[in-house]
């Protein structure tokens, strides 16, 4: 497998030093231009290059409007870049596929299906045999902590529960990469913390590659191996920071950890500086 | 300044008209049916109808009844709908009655109302009034119901009386929905007008249509259909312009009418 | 709270209906309206019950219902099909949109004479008229529902490996269902109205024809009976559709 050299590669360090990690997603000089309603071109993403290692938890952090979600959609294959290309395991991404599973802020559950029906959707679509799919789905629902809610409809669940279902639905078709688009953005602070903990616990089990979009600095630092800081108009990568904190992480311990605090403060300071510099509109 | 894309979108309905007339022309040529004149024959018959003084008076009388029925219905229905939307009790009071009246064809009340009031203008106008009222009430009701409660609280805090709140907050906030109802009502007024004249068969556009059918003047029948159709399309387009002006502030709405009889 | 509120609301709703019947009875009893013009409500409802059990009247209802369902079914099939296709495919949209713009505000009853000439005086012309009138609300609300399906629902299904053409049936159609059913509800009421009118204008059977026959012979009582019948049919069909709706939309909020 050929690793395309990219701007960020110098920052990349293997997550598990014992065996060298290989790149799973390569983003190569991607730019995205949108037309605004007044028919003017808006450069949402400008020449982004980024390599994501297998089994890494990578956050894309930036202010709203910096194109971080667009970047995620390009990796998902939902949006094609205006120029440049994204690759998954060396193959160009041309559309969505079950190797990359999205989890959206809006949950995007099928309202006409129950919790069980939503989780079953992927395996059925993949042609998994019914008995097997059912067993797996039930196990997943239990794993995300919703045992007993199998026959509930999404409208009967709270926001946090909906996002748990959405996660289970995506995990059910075994994607190699999880694409999480501000998944906890619509939740209250308490629920958010619980889901962050649970997400890490689930992630620890099989360490899938995660690409996680957020605008919360401490969420990014708490969860990630690597934080990609983006700046706005046009959306560019400012800096990529490795988060060298031990795992498994406990939030209560981490909050007292001087290194954690340092990461958070450093990142926030960097964003403040760029705000003061004031990029022209 | 209009871009070519805008121009194409505006001209599309014209092309659609021409296309539909062309299909008609081809179909009638292919069918070779005596009672199915070609589009060109039908269009040729239009000047004859519009040139005939009596026919013209008939059509204008129809339009007058329609305008009166529509106007009175709108003036009556909007306040009722708004009240229903803001007061549960008023809604509970009127809803069942309206539910019962809803599936009754209003033009079918013609024979009964004719018994009481005769075949004159009052009967036909009353029927148009009934036909227009329901959709306008319904949409005003839905519009008023959807008005943000907090907007009314702000109004109350500013010292507006309940009536003032209804006129100065609920009415404008519900206006997009009300106008959707009015648009439906307008098409409905035309439909009820034609139908009532088809049933009463005494005067008006609907009467010309069916008399021509009885007398076997098929090109007149089809010419009248074009005239009535054009009335519907023009009234709707005119109303849409007014609507777009009045509710410029609202979210761009679905720009197709939901007409029904 | 609701349990106490509901009977109050029902009672409140019955008031105007009772009032209408009372005024009606009052008009007749006081002699203000001669019974030949306004028969007493008792006589009308008695006649209705008497008619409902007769074979001939049931035949009339059956004729009306047949035309109503046939026309409505065609309208649903065409409206949902074309509406979804127009929402999914820009080329189809470019053709359908202007045609709908022209045809939707056209008063369809005016086409009835043409339909009579082309399809004859039988079922065909009436069913076509019903279908033509019920079509547009269904088509428009389907189109509206299908073109406002949340993008991320579609993305979620695509990521799970759903091919593009299956998205239409597995996501767009169910997601547009609330809107489609709203259109169907309007279409159903229209079907009731139009079938009756068509039967009034020309027919040899059906409820509309019953009304016209009664009107010709000035039988006031018999004029009310078909009107009340069509109103009842409308209520029943609307109720059935409402039941179907709450079953199909059991997962949707506020359904």
From TrEMBL, chain A:
Gene3D superfamilies from the UniProt entry: P-loop containing nucleotide triphosphate hydrolases
ABC transporter domain: residues covered: 25-257
MF terms (GO), sorted A to Z: ATP binding; ATP hydrolysis activity
Superkingdom in the source lineage: Bacteria
PANTHER family in the cross-refs: ALIPHATIC SULFONATES IMPORT ATP-BINDING PROTEIN SSUB, TAURINE IMPORT ATP-BINDING PROTEIN-RELATED
Family statement drawn from the similarity comment of this UniProt entry: Belongs to the ABC transporter superfamily.
Described function: Involved in beta-(1-->2)glucan export. Transmembrane domains (TMD) form a pore in the inner membrane and the ATP-binding domain (NBD) is responsible for energy generation.
Protein name: ABC transporter ATP-binding protein
Species of the source: Bradyrhizobium hipponense
Classification of source organism: Bacteria, Pseudomonadati, Pseudomonadota, Alphaproteobacteria, Hyphomicrobiales
UniProtKB/TrEMBL annotation, chain B:
Recorded GO CC terms: plasma membrane
Cross-referenced InterPro entries: MetI-like, MetI-like_sf
GO biological process: transmembrane transport
Location of this chain's protein in the cell: Cell membrane
Alphabetized Pfam families for the sequence: BPD_transp_1
SUPFAM superfamilies: MetI-like (SSF161098)
Topological relation to the membrane, as annotated: Multi-pass membrane protein
UniProtKB keywords: Cell membrane, Membrane, Transmembrane, Transmembrane helix, Transport
Transmembrane segments: 12-31, 66-85, 97-119, 220-239
Annotated ranges, domain ABC transmembrane type-1: 59-239
Family from the record: Belongs to the binding-protein-dependent transport system permease family.
Protein name (database record): ABC transporter permease
UniProtKB/TrEMBL annotation, chain C:
Gene Ontology terms: biological process: transmembrane transport
Residues spanning the membrane: 65-87, 99-121, 127-146, 167-198, 218-241
Gene3D superfamilies: MetI-like
Membrane topology, from the record: Multi-pass membrane protein
Domain of life, source organism: Bacteria
Annotated localization: Cell membrane
Domain called ABC transmembrane type-1: residue spans: 61-241
Major localization class: membrane
Keywords recorded for this protein, A-Z: Cell membrane, Membrane, Transmembrane, Transmembrane helix, Transport
UniProt keyword Transmembrane present: yes
InterPro entries cross-referenced by the UniProt entry: MetI-like (IPR000515), MetI-like_sf (IPR035906)
One GO cellular component term: plasma membrane
Family statement: Belongs to the binding-protein-dependent transport system permease family.
Name this protein carries in UniProt: ABC transporter permease subunit
Higher taxonomy: Bacteria, Pseudomonadati, Pseudomonadota, Alphaproteobacteria, Hyphomicrobiales
